[in-house]
Predict the 3D structure of the following.
Amino acid sequence: MNIKPPAEPGMAFSDIDTPSLVVDLDAFERNLEIMAARVTEAGVRLRPHAKTHKSPWVALQQIARGAVGICCQKVSEAEIMVDGGVHDVLVSNQVVGAAKLDRLAALNQQAQVAVCIDHIDAVAEIAAAAANQNVIINTLVEIEVGGGRCGVAPGVAALNLARAIADDKHLHFAGLQGYHGKAQHFRGLNERRDAIAEATRLTAETVELLAQDGLACEIIGGAGTGTFEFEAASGVYNELQAGSYAFMDADYARNRDADIFEHALFVCAAVMSRPNQQTAVVDAGHKAASIDSGLPVPWGLAGSEMSGMSDEHGVIDITTVNEKPARGDKILLIPGHCDPTVNLHDWYVGVRGLHGADACVETVWPVAARGALF
């Protein structure tokens, strides 16, 4: 059963059904242009992360502005991106299991789809899938640079893994993945800078060790929205994998010196109840906005604060709000974490002039890779 979109092009903002995922197209486009200009100035490449938006439409907008391709975390995301016209994808994650690897290899018959590994057993597993599909798979070694997740140790362990890739005729050693995920949300600018300085040191030492063994890194990838300027200026990283910059969310806004990009993604909710003068209840709850990084933040409602959420309800404290919203009014909520919030919705509603009196729906497009988790 197909879910009907909550809006149609040409519709006034006030007529959008709720709860729905709204993109401020003006802010969104400015965000894309700002990042494109920053990476050009730094002389590095941009490979934005599609786990944020799960949309070939957004990916192609980024590529049109100079991105070399996109990142995905899952093979199913990569399949949807390739089907949507994206021809250069990096699965910047570990892929385990013959079925997944066979699908990854099959994608390389249509596009260039690379993958990361951090264990020697993965070499034979990926090579077998590549041989089965008669392709050569670009393979990167992921190194642990402080994030505390996946990654082989920098240095000799990474060299041994890279050499095993390079020595296999079904694989091509394409470089290193050195992403520091935790650093993206360190609040202080200096704290983020110091974390990336250490990640850069570990990555640079590994690049040099590989070079001494005759292994060149075409890709040295990492970076996110919270730290991309440091990787861009490092002289080591040559591909940046920031994703959230396109939309921004409330959690990234809590980082100090995080005003480069604008909020472009909102959950549009309607006031469904006004039980008293202190409270407005909206029709967006846990099923409309992720709360893993905190509750959503009401936009343009000075003095208000989201005080609680349940499955289908969001409670907003409007005690100190001068112009209190009425039943039926639309309220925009900035999600705490954009990535999992996007994965809760079927459609994007792109609005032009969102914060003006003439706000109008310009485009509607699907969250094509929603639920693509395997």
User: Anything to note?
Assistant: The mean pLDDT is 97. The chain has two domains: 13-22+260-366, 25-250. Residues 252 and 320 are 26 Å apart (CA to CA).
